[in-house]
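TICKET #2291
ISSUE: user wants both folds in one file
ATTACHMENT 1:
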Amino acid sequence: MELELQYGESRGYWKYHAPGKWFRQAKAIGKINNERATLLFDSGADVSIVDSTFARKVGCIIDESQRQECVGIGENAYVTEGCTKIKVTLAGSLVYFFHAWVGTLSGQDAILGMDFMVPAGIRLDLAEGTLCLPGEVRIQLSGRRPLYNGKVIPISVDRSLVILVGRSEEIPIRS
């Protein structure tokens, strides 16, 4: 099967569950070293980078003896200015201490890549526009609205289910 993908076109799941929805970057507000920060969660990034101006503003000590060459930011290879240890706070009380690279960024105070998200137990739910933290705590991504109303109750199924096409399964809900 070959498909010619057109700009703005939706197929499969997205065509029926989020028609016409345009997906933006996965940004959320958190804190770095107790200072409000715009965080870009990038599942395509192997490393995390904190903006150098922001890092200095929040008192980070930058180790300039270590540098990292990154590709994927602009057309040319990008070299970081050093690395630092940061304190990332999400959902008000979930705190992570983490080593990140320091470099010049625009549009956000930090890019948090897979080197942060996997050990932190964070995943992106782009269909719902949320950042899923451990314990199914969810943070709404910046500029997103839920696709459903407030009457929806998220559930977790404690057993494997195989539901055949056209069939249904009843699951008891516990409070």
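ATTACHMENT 2:
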Amino acid sequence: MEISSTMSCRAKSRINASFTVKVRGVDAAGKDYEEDAVLDNLSASGLYVRLPRNLEIDAEVFTFICLSSGHSSKAAPAGVAASGVVVRSEPQLDGSYGVAINFKRYRLL
């Protein structure tokens, strides 16, 4: 796993890492969804991920970021459970949507 820190004009540093994330909520069409994806980047205040569906700005979402591989079938994988809101959802050339989520609450599990 490659982790690199990037710094720009953002308030929080971001890491580019390939953590698995589960995203759950209601899409722009009003349908409930639950998607597994891979993070593009992560910071203390939010995340950016590509999803196969468009999400409305200000839509509430729940995410679970898996921080371990969970090799033991008896142990639950370590991760971060977070609720947040969509602050950006942009169509990508491959048909997916780049979605930025701002965390409102999170908890280490």
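RESOLUTION: both attachments delivered.
EXTRA DETAIL ON ATTACHMENT 2: Strands lie at 4-6, 14-16, 20-26, 32-43, 46-51, 60-66, 79-91, 97-108.
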